Structure formats: C-alpha cells, structure tokens
Amino acid sequence: MAQRKPVGSVTRGTTNPNRLRRVDRYIASLPIIRRTANPIVVDLGYGATPTTAIEMLARLSKENSNTKVVGIEIDRERVERALPFETENLLFGLGGFEVPLPKELTAKVTVIRAMNVLRQYDESEVTSTWELMQSRLDNDGLIVEGTCDEIGRIASWVTLETSGPKLFTISLRLRGLDKPSKVAERLPKALIHHNVPGQPIHQLLKDLDAAWANHAGLAIFSPAQRWVASCEDLKAKGWPINNEAKRWKLGELTISWEAVKPQVTLL
What average pLDDT does the segment 48-75 reach? Predict the structure, then answer.
C-alpha cells in the first residue's frame, strides 16, 4: 500500500453479519460488475472485523468470479486483524478516502462502497470527500455512499459517477414496516439535515408515507405488493423513479439525485 497518512477519521467500527446485504445486492445488480473483466471493488471502512468485505466478495463473485474486493481501514489494528483472511481475491490495507490499492493492482477502482463512514463527519466535508474518492475511480466507476441501521433493515445511499451523484436509493425490510419515512434516521449525510418542509427529500418521504398508507389493504397479500403499488403511485405523481418492479419487490426505490438533492434557499 502507498505509504502516506490516511485521509479521514477512525469510525466506531460497528460490524454485524449481513448488515450490508441490501447494498451488496444492489451493487451485484449493477451492469458494471458483469461487464468489467476484472472488477476491483473497495469496501471502505469495513470496521472492527472484516465480515462485510468477506460477505461482499461472496455475493459479487456470483455475478463475476473475477471480482477482487479490497477492504480498506484507517485503523491499523483492524487491518492487522483482517490480514489472516486474505485470499487471491480478497485483500486488505491501511487507508482512508484516498483509497490506496495494493501494488499488484494496477487498474483503477470499479466500485467503492462507503457505508456508514460519513455519518460522523460534517456535511460541509461531504463534497470534498466524494471528489477524493471519485479521483480513484475508473472512467465508468461508481461510488455507493450511504448509511444503514445496525442490522441492515433500514438503508439508503447515493450512487455517484466520476461526474457527480446520479441516483438516490432507499432499501427497507418491508415486513413489519410502519412508515417508509423511518429511513429518515438513516439518510446519507448529504441529505439527513435537509429532511425539513420545503426540501425535496422531505416531500419524497411524505409522498411515500401517503402512498404506503393508501395501499394498506394490499398488506393482506404481501408487503411487497403494497410497496410496488406505493412506488407506482410515486411514479404517477411524477417522481423520476429509476428502477422497476423487480427491484421494488425487494424493498428498493431508486430515484434521480436531481429530484432529491438539497435546494438552496435564496434570501
């Protein structure tokens, strides 16, 4: 690994098995994983144990057996604990948002997954952090940055290209869900402080809650049918939804970033 001071701060390191299954499932569905001959995927800030990186490789390998996962941590002790788990396709190293790669990997990064790493930062630091990670991507590379709860039932993330953020995704465990706006507590740092009246993200969650309530009768069949109907309502209202029923049935909803990005109020 490149010998320079890592960029960033040590996180709490919370790691639970299957915590990131929803975002892994999303990344596995991305065409870039299948069409890239030898994808390099980074698990940035994997935490106290290498569990999430190990699980990520297992899931993505089903889509492309040539996938290599690199777990990067800013805490040297966490890296040392992970090294015994290294394989030909699973590597670990010390680093931060500068995303250093092992010397044997000469290509740029295909996907960076950065979940629960910006939660402790100030919102003013988000853009510069995004830009630093973007500089490490291949031309068609992607960043998936967001937040989830400790057991992975509530999650949301932003998908960025080298040119900037493109998509926003909500992913929820539908069984037992009261209101979709529960995701408000797990919004990405770029959105979490903007969930207030007058901001697009607030309106999205308000409309989603209303649609979920309107289709309560479908719960007798399945929460997935209720969610699909709710997503159809949002699409009919003009929200630029990017994914389809196949993903909706999994509790996902993906929408254009332009539709939810924070709006600056001019005085």
Answer: 97
Each residue's pLDDT tens digit, 210-264: 999 999 999 999 999 999 999 999 999 999 999 999 999 999 999 999 999 999 7
Judge if 64 and 140 occupy the same domain.
Answer: yes
Instruction: Specify whether 37 is located in the same domain as 148.
Output: yes
> Please, what is the average pLDDT of the chain?
94
pLDDT at 265: 61
Rounded to whole angstroms, the Cα distance separating 47 from 74 reads 9
Residue 43 belongs to a domain = yes
Q: What whole-number percentage of the chain has pLDDT above 90?
A: 90
What DSSP string runs through the chain?
---SPPSS--------TTTTHHHHHHHHHSHHHHHSSS-EEEEET--SSSHHHHHHHHHHHTT-TT-EEEEEES-HHHHHHHGGG-BTTEEEEE--TT----TT--SPEEEEEEESSSTTS-GGGHHHHHHHHHTTEEEEEEEEEEEE-TTSSEEEEEEEETTEEEEEEEEE--TT-S-GGGGGGG--HHHHTT-STTSHHHHHHHHHHHHHHHTGGGGGT-HHHHHHHHHHHHHHTT--B-S-HHHHTTTEEEEEHHHHSPPPPP-
Do both 149 and 207 map to the same domain?
Answer: no
Pairing of strands 154-161, 252-256: unpaired
Whether 10 shows a pLDDT value over 90: the answer reads no
